Sequence to fold (328 residues):
Amino acid sequence: DSIREMKFTLEGNMNHYLWTLDNKTVTETDKIMIKKGEVLRIKLYNNSMMRHPMHLHGHDFRLINSKGEYSPLKNVVDIMPMETVTIEFAANQDGDWFFHCHILYHMMAGMGRIFSYENSKPNPQLPNRKLAWKNFIQDNKMTSSMAMLDVASNKIHAETMTMFGPRWANLNEFHSNWNFDHFEGSVKVGRFLGKFQWALPYAGIRVQKNHEIMERQMTEDMGMDFHGKKTWFGQQKASKNKFALMIGMQYVLPMLITADASVDQNGKVLLELSREDIPLSRRLRGNFSVNSDGEFSTGVRYIVQKWLSLSGNYDNEMGWGAGITLTY
Fold:
């Protein structure tokens, strides 16, 4: 029998739950067409920090090792981090067969491939093969959401993030004092780049309200020059408009610090450096945020339950506060 060789690198991202073979999910690739009678030899390298029990439906494969002809037959092989294994199986079936990681959320996040036999006989259990494939792809385009609500004595702060499949994301953020006369919020939509998803170019809209913006609008409406606080880049801190369109880029720096640089429709540049969930102890987490407008905040939270924390914070515009943080 002819031997056909393949190589796959098992990779992943535990931050956004992206799990791939060769940096592609099962929904981002075509089926692998195989011929009945050939032998497939597949080299698998686990380039991640998690184990991956890889399972092939409908076949037993030989785990190639030093035992030669006595190498064991399996249908699941558990591949440890940084380990390389080689498997071999005879193509002796018909139809489509799923090859995937047997950790459920890795499989649902995209870590798999479909082996499809050429010129297969119709499967009576799948009368509509195209519809079945469409449903399979739809099931594997996971939509996952997370949310955080911090209710403190000095302010309210909320964040949400929704992943649409493995790459696209929607990020929303809003914080305000309790009088709702000093607030800022943003809506961003972007696509993560690269196998580790360090970079996220995005487009969105920002909304702001504070006394400096109102003062600038009143001054300029009177035909006068406004002389307010300046940013790190020498621009006016107070935006021209309450609403502003923007484009930008998020990038994860060493120490898991997120750098977020954006420019709005008026040319104002905003740079923010932040980090969430800094581990201080088993249950204590810290956070900080600083931006080019001169705004700074920091805080700690004590984890009571996975969805509930007791929190305290300092914001250079809203002062000290304490409250609770809810997470989903």
Observations:
- Helices lie at 104-108, 129-139, 211-221.
- The first helix runs from residue 104 to 108.
- The longest strand covers residues 3-13.
- The chain is about 10% helix and 50% strand.
